[in-house]
Specification:
Shape: globular
CATH class of one domain: Alpha Beta
CATH superfamily of one domain: ATPase, nucleotide binding domain
Strand content: 15-25%
Number of strands: 22
Bound molecules: adenosine-5'-diphosphate
Radius of gyration: 22 Å
Strand order of the largest sheet: 16-17-15-14-20-21-22
CATH topology of one domain: Nucleotidyltransferase, domain 5
Largest sheet: 7 strands, mixed
Length: 497
């Protein structure tokens, strides 16, 4: 038996999972780290704490698994995307904290870019909308605001990286400055059609090309762990950003295969194969995890408030003691009694895009109880996800691409059977929960295993991926359409405010 290490560096915690060669979990180690909020709208992480927490879980997972380092054949990395780091190549010292994807400090730069008419250019090269979420304007902010950064960068002393790049730098003892295509595609500096850094975009934001890491396919030679770290050098063979890694871990290798992750927010990605669609429905195009040098793409949309609507029921409304109690509360009533919850707590994302919208509850009557609201809150997660999938299918239809005919699910809220059934009912397609729902880490393990030859090809991975439960649509299509219309009506009332 050989084993694969998957490092899953997330926004709030670092984790390491040891997988066996059948893709089954052997051990998980996890450690949270500090969230730094220096000003409203700013979110930072300490790069050294990211690394130390990751290293602690790596060592912990290995020692608890009882596996000798020699039996660990390779290592894969998946990570929070877009988060931006800069360090000095000579010393490895970060010049500033990591600026986290949620951070909005670069908004003004984005406004300027949009106002000077660059949206079409950026979209055509990167597949993205100009937004402070992506790395480019965060990196620009660092160069403009950290004392001496611009001079040091111009002299070639500074290195930029997303979190994968930072971890590989640390793991390899400063020998490798590399990233993979899926992470590169989230920087807004990468041409996803050519798989190269884009000189025009780098110039637009005044970023020296010497700062940029080498970009490799997602299964490739990313270097080795330094012998001093584990007493044994382990090849780093796979890297992908968290959502693309989850798409890969769900074995969505063919155009039209889709996954939705039900976490704090929801992230839906559909594999589009060699075709890079340009969305007419407010979605973004991104590089999928690419095990070879052949470009492969995905279309992506996200729901800002997904599972966190359940946290709001728990912590804001005190309607439940724990997240898992929501299913029983919702089951106390057989329908929402006409109540619709639109949890636009931070605005609405795709396909509505209204940053100023705020949440509403419509359809309240004298008979409304907390159970109706809890049920409607759960339904809102499925309604928002259904609206995303419908938008993806509209894009597919316009380009002759195959529509999505089943949805693979993961994330903390996918354990909720009511939610999964309602999702299948709304969409009219099967919703499939796999046995291993740690698909983000699994994707990185699959990629590393492909590179090192543990797995022959993606065909073999498709066979390893196993179904835990299929939720088949039970609602009539007419009823599903009328429920969806009820949701859209409530959204219109939310947006109109
Ligand atoms: P993230 O990775 O975004 O931190 P997770 O994938 O760990 O999130 O999922 C956590 C989310 O899932 C929380 O928002 C929580 O409220 C929600 N959640 C957990 N259990 C349930 C449940 N039984 N029903 C609905 N939502 C749940």
């Amino acid at each position: 038996m050989t084993y694969i290490l998957a490092l899953d560096q997330g926004t709030t915690s670092s984790r390491t999972i040891v997988f066996d060669q059948a893709g089954q979990i052997k051990t998980i180690a996890q450690q949270e780290f500090t969230q730094i909020f220096p000003k409203p709208g700013w979110v930072e992480h300490d790069p050294k704490e990211i690394w130390q927490s990751q290293l602690t879980t790596l060592r912990d997972a290995i020692s608890r698994s009882g596996i000798a380092p020699q039996a660990l054949s390779c290592l894969g990395i998946t990570n929070q995307r877009e988060t931006t780091l800069v360090w000095d190549r000579r010393t490895g010292e970060p010049i500033y904290n990591a600026i986290v994807w949620q951070d909005r400090r670069a908004e003004q730069t984005c406004v300027r870019l949009r106002e000077s008419g660059h949206q079409a250019l950026v979209e055509s090269k990167t597949g993205l909308r100009i937004d402070a979420y992506f790395s480019a304007t965060k990196l620009h902010w660092l160069l403009e605001n950290v004392p001496n950064a611009r001079t040091q960068a111009n002299q070639g002393h500074l290195a930029f990286g997303t979190v994968d790049t930072w971890l590989i730098w640390q793991l390899s003892g400063g020998k490798r400055h590399v990233t993979d295509v899926s992470n590169a595609s989230r920087t807004m500096l990468f041409n996803i059609h050519k798989n190269t850094w884009d000189d025009e975009l780098l110039a637009l934001l005044d970023i020296p090309k010497s700062m940029m890491p080498e970009v490799l396919p997602s299964a490739a030679d990313f270097g080795h762990t330094d012998v001093d770290i584990l007493g044994h050098a382990i090849p780093i063979g796979g890297v992908a950003g968290d959502q693309q890694s989850a798409l890969f871990g769900q074995a969505c290798f063919h155009a039209g295969q889709a996954k939705n992750t039900y976490g704090t927010g929801c992230f839906m990605l559909t594999q589009t194969g060699s075709h890079a669609p340009s969305s007419q429905n407010g979605l973004i195009t991104t590089a999928a995890a690419q095990p070879t040098g052949t470009p492969q793409f995905a279309i992506e949309g996200s729901v800002f408030i997904g599972g966190s609507v359940v946290q709001w029921l728990r912590d804001g409304l005190h309607a439940i003691e724990s997240s898992s109690a929501v299913e029983a509360l919702a089951a106390q009533v057989c329908d929402t009694g006409g109540v619709v919850v639109v949890p636009a707590f931070t605005g609405l994302g795709a396909p509505y895009w209204d940053a100023n919208a705020r949440g509403t509850i419509t359809g309240l009557t004298r008979g409304t109880t907390m159970a109706h609201i809890a049920r409607a809150a759960l339904e809102s997660i499925a309604f928002q996800s259904a609206a995303l999938l419908q938008a993806m299918n509209r894009d597919a239809l316009a380009t002759g691409a195959p529509p999505v005919n089943e949805l693979r699910v993961d994330g903390g809220a996918c354990v909720n059977d009511f939610l999964m059934q309602f999702q299948a009912d709304l969409l009219g397609i099967s919703v499939i929960r796999p046995k291993v729902t740690e698909t983000t880490a699994l994707g990185a393990a699959y990629l590393a295993g492909l590179h090192t030859g543990i797995f022959a090809n993606t065909e073999e991975l498709s066979h390893l991926w196993q179904v835990e439960r299929r939720f088949e649509p039970q609602m009539s299509r007419e009823h599903a359409a009328s429920r969806m219309a009820e949701w859209e009506q409530a959204v219109r009332q939310t947006v109109a405010r």
